[in-house]
Amino acid sequence: MTDVAIQGGRIRIVQPAIAIGEAADVVDASGKLVTPGWIDLHVHVGAPDLTPATLLHDGVTSMVDGGSAGADNIDALVGVARAAPNRVRILLNIARTGVTGPGELKDMAAADVDAARRAIARHREWIVGVKVRLSESVCGDQDLEALRRARQAAGPLPVMLHVGQTFSPLQKILELLEPGDIVTHPYSPPPHTVLDDNGRVLPEVRAARRRGIRFDVGNGRNGHITWPIVDAATRDGFWPDTISSDITGPGRTFRVFDLPTVVSKFLMLGMPLDQAMASVTTHAAAAVRAFKDLGTLRPGAPADVAILELKNGEFEFVDNVDAKRTGRVKLATTAVVMNGKRM
């Protein structure tokens, strides 16, 4: 058993049997999982029906809004980030209006590189990359052009690309990516999945990972994860680099619920616990330059801590078509510390 001591908003000591002494507060985490504060790389907190504070209670001390706003409405989302009790950073949608409906890039004039660059320059503290949705319902047959424009706008920053049901094969899409870019929704159903015709992970997907492309769950509510695809991919050893929720307000009560539920889903699928924890801490922190000091409990790091119970029993999980599975364990957040303060 190891104790964690916090002072001045930072981790001070991590070792067994730390003397309580004059500690101002003591949290008894006996029998619990004590992890760095969780990082959700894909949320949507631009609407009033889901606030960053709500996610803080789930153990999410840092998050990235995944393209809710574009160049035309980014100022309002930056205002949300500034006011949040936890860390919020933003992926700017290459579509000027952000996510306003199913087809924000049907007119490619909306993918305005210059407008995006100006927005990034205006909000460098808050914008950590560019988001582009590539499904055919969003951009028709122009997915490759949309991605090219997102890449141009991002410059040295990463691009997060929403895949699943694209017009172009995934292999063609992956060719345009640079190290550090993030593919979200890799377990989406056909057409153009991460699998070949034999149900094996595409060699181009493995090659992309080797050259520094990250693969992020992005559970979401619609068309992003189905059991047959995730079963085949994980059976072939293709686990995600990061687990994110892609949560919206409606997702709190439908298919997503919270990040601990999404992580529990991957535990049910057989992901090792340490790998699952890394996917929302160290690996997630490595994906965002602004989070480089997070995702760790090493002495000197910001004192963000999530304390969770690993419950045993029978728990129901669903995919994006409401197919049900039963798991034997489920994570539940019991306490959260951010910057050394119990929340």
Task: Output the CATH class name.
Answer: Alpha Beta
CATH topology annotation = TIM Barrel
Span of the ends, CA to CA: 24 Å
Number of strands: 13
Helix content: 10-25%
Task: Assign an overall shape.
Answer: globular
- CATH superfamily grouping: Metal-dependent hydrolases
Give the domain tally. 1
Unreliable residue stretches: none
- In what order do the strands lie side by side in the largest sheet? 4-5-6-7-8-9-10
Oligomer: single chain
| Arithmetic mean of pLDDT | 97
Please state the structural category: alpha/beta
Overall CATH architecture = Alpha-Beta Barrel
Q: What is the gyration radius calculated from CA atoms? A: 20 Å
Largest sheet: 7 strands, parallel
Topology:
Layout: E1 3-7, E2 10-15, E3 33-36, E4 38-43, H1 52-56, E5 60-66, H2 74-83, E6 87-93, H3 113-122, E7 127-133, H4 136-139, H5 143-154, E8 159-162, H6 170-174, E9 182-184, H7 203-210, E10 214-216, H8 227-235, H9 259-268, H10 273-279, H11 282-286, E11 305-318, E12 324-338, E13 341-342
Question: Can you describe what's shown?
Answer:
- This protein is of the alpha/beta class and 343 residues long.
- The chain has one domain: TIM Barrel (Alpha-Beta Barrel).
- Helix content is 25%, strand content 24%.
- It is built from 11 helices and 13 strands.
- A 7-stranded parallel beta sheet has the order 4-5-6-7-8-9-10.
- Helix 3 runs parallel beside helix 5.
- The protein starts with a strand and ends with a strand.
- The model has no long low-confidence stretch (mean pLDDT 97).
